[in-house]
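User: I'm new to structure prediction. If I give you an amino acid sequence, what do you actually give back? Let's try with this one:
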Amino acid sequence: MTRASAWAGVSLCGVLLASCAVGPDFVSPVGPMVAGYTREQRPAATTSAPVTGGNSQGFETGRDIPGAWWALFRSRQLNAFVEEAIRNHPDVQAAQFALRYARENTLAQQGSLFPQVSGSASAERDRTSTSQSGQWPAQGSTYTLYNASVSVSYALDIWGGTRRQVEALQAQADYQGFKLEATYLALTANVVTAAITDASLRDQILATEEIIKAESDQLARIQRQFEIGAISKSDLLSQEATLAQAKATLAPLQKQLAQQRNQLMAYLGRLPSQDRGEHVRLADLRLPGRLPVSLPSKLVRQRPDIRQAEATLHQATATVGVGIANLLPQLTLSGSYGATSPERLFSPETIVWSAASSVSQKIFDGGTLYHTKEADVAAFEQDLALYKSTVVTAFQNVADSLRAIQYDAATLKAQAAAEKATADSLAMAVEQFKTGAVPYANIINAQQSYLNARVSRVKAQATRFTDTAALFQSLGGGWWNRVDETPDALPRANAGYFAGTDKKTEDALR
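Assistant: Good question. You get back a string of structure tokens that encode the predicted 3D arrangement of the chain. For your 510 residues, that looks like this:
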């Protein structure tokens, strides 16, 4: 048998031995087998109210979620806010580079599956003298020594430990990919919610200012009537107190609006001083009439946080395989081929080569490897429990959103009716007071009731929009349907998204 045949046989044995990997093979967990998200059957549609954002909403089971779900609110300003946040927010950029870091580590580890080849060459000019050996008269000679060699080392992955390490790193890359999607989803949902809350606070402030103006006008009339003796001092003082109470509600709303603007600017990647005043109006928003409700069996494949937990479980599974492989003997093949000559390099008489194999196995390590493997098993069990917890929380989120949308509609209908009733009651109290049929205290009570009802109606309007956004978020946000428009978008296989906002840095790192 020739040396080439021997090496081929050894390599073939290595490939065959490396065809299996010890440790458990990862299988994606099966989601809960349930018919719905809630115990009771949800209604086909919600109730409606005769105000903005009061239309009925129907639920469509099994309908897919659009990638840009926020566009269903039909607001150009809201769309602009979301697009700006995606481009500018540092959290998205950090998640993008975390994904790249994980991918590069995976590719680096894959290099361990291949033979490691290194080459070396050297040339050395020397002069010797016979005086070194005691010969006289001394004679000197000058020569050049050439060396060239190629060395090959291959750690056979007999038990699949290296492949399990690559698998663990790939699972980590998957985790970072879905973490990027989770960051993207949370940011878009937060921008939508912040913009709607901003619009709600503006309407609440507007309603409060209108009521303050109306009560100020009423106070002026009461003042004139008091001056002519038509009413008592107590009526005047009651109206002044009512006006003061209304004014006292304005400053807290203005404070909330200012802080909400700061939060919105942070989501957009701006500083508070860079606020240009753009805002969304509740009257410009449209409430989606048909709401998609994913099948429960699909939720575990759609939620980024569940996919993150699954990737962590996958990594833990592969790490158990690495621990088992470390307990078994390790085989390494090595060889070198080269030449050493003071004259003709690579002539037959100057060729040198070597081939070797080695097997190593720890005989005693105080139980280090065994207990390391057992720790990996415990980590796997922990990650499995955390995965189950994430799934339970996800189903709770969807159920909460569905219930919220159902009862939000009923709340808005009731608040709209309350606002109309209190407005009618206030108008009637004013007319009755003019004829002396009721005391002025009735007007005071009616004014306070109307103020509360109007502000509550505005809040109920905004809640319908924000809870609709929460439903889209709880169902996963439709990232699987999103179309990346930038040339630097990360491949969809890992569910990544690259906005390409830092092109100079990106080019420098290539």
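You can read the tokens as a compact description of the fold. Here is one thing that stands out. Residues 422 and 450 are 5 Å apart (CA to CA).
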